[in-house]
Specification:
By secondary structure, the chain is α/β, with parallel strands linked by helices. Helices cover 24% and strands 29% of the residues.
Length: 280
């Protein structure tokens, strides 16, 4: 199953931290938060990634390409300039990097990924948050109800995307700021390809009309995750995640050491063959 990750927004509330890089490349424990997200999905066997690029997307492209070269042995012909990569310890993932526009909204970015996702169920998340969610359980829940969309409902401090639910069915979705205690949208989805019919175009925010329409049509279900979830919208939240990682007790670290590092020059004991395809 493919995993789509939205990594195109500017993340303006992180200020100077993101000036030279897109938000998913902001580091936690010396590694981009995007790396943490990829590792979490790969831990559950999902290793086919589709990353929607926008703001400073070239930084993510360069990072992935540098990773391939700097974490493998190289044979370089100085005469011809030909480079051959040998061995090395890299994860066996497919990563497709797709330019989805500088100003495209979340729904529009997802719709632009449709040709690469095919007519199949897919997973979706944002490139700026981590959790300890059990993705096997999430997928089992989605397959059990037969609806078009499952979102993950979480209980952090007041944020956007308040949910009203009857049992596990979402009966009302609001993109307005949460004003009362309850569950909110954690932006970890399992979706059927029919959801593209609910997205009008580039200016559509998934968090508004598409999810509101799906909820009104009885096609939006919520998987309740009462445990750890945290996005990284502000410097304060970044420092909070840094502290958890440095403590050695980061709740979202579901994988076992040693792990493949996206830090230059480091190595883990993983399968060879990180494949990457850039689409424009």
């Amino acid at each position: 199953m493919k995993v789509a990750i939205l990594a195109g927004g500017p993340g303006s509330r992180l200020g100077e931290e993101i000036e030279p890089k897109p938000k998913p490349m902001v580091e936690i424990g010396g590694k981009p938060i995007l790396w943490h997200i990829l590792m979490h999905y790969a831990h559950y066997g999902h290793e086919d990634f589709l990353i929607a690029l926008g703001y400073k997307g070239e930084v993510i492209k360069k990072y992935m390409l540098d990773y391939c070269a700097l974490n493998r042995d190289l044979s370089v012909s100085l005469k011809t300039g030909k480079v051959k990569m040998n061995g090395g310890a890299v994860p066996d993932w497919m990563v497709e990097l797709v330019d989805t526009g500088m100003k495209t909204q979340t729904g529009g970015r997802i719709k632009r990924l449709a040709p690469y996702l095919g007519n199949e169920t897919f997973m979706l998340t944002w490139g700026d948050g981590v959790s300890d969610i059990n993705l096997h359980d999430l997928l089992t829940f989605h397959r059990s109800h037969g609806k078009l969309a499952t979102l993950t409902a979480v209980r952090p401090t007041a944020r956007l995307g308040h949910l009203e639910m009857e049992g596990d069915r979402v009966v009302e979705f609001s993109g307005k700021p949460q004003t009362r205690e309850g569950w909110i949208n954690g932006a970890i989805f399992v979706l059927e390809p029919e959801i593209f019919d609910f997205i009008d175009g580039d200016d559509t925010r998934l968090e508004k009309e598409p999810l509101e329409r799906l909820a009104a049509a009885g096609q939006l279900m919520a998987y309740r995750h009462p445990a750890f979830w945290q996005c990284m919208d502000t410097i304060r939240e970044k420092k909070y995640l840094e502290g958890l990682w440095e403590s050695g007790n980061a709740p979202w670290k579901t994988w076992e050491e040693p792990n493949p590092s996206f830090s230059h020059g480091e190595h883990g004991i993983y399968r060879n063959g990180l494949s990457m395809v850039s689409r424009t």
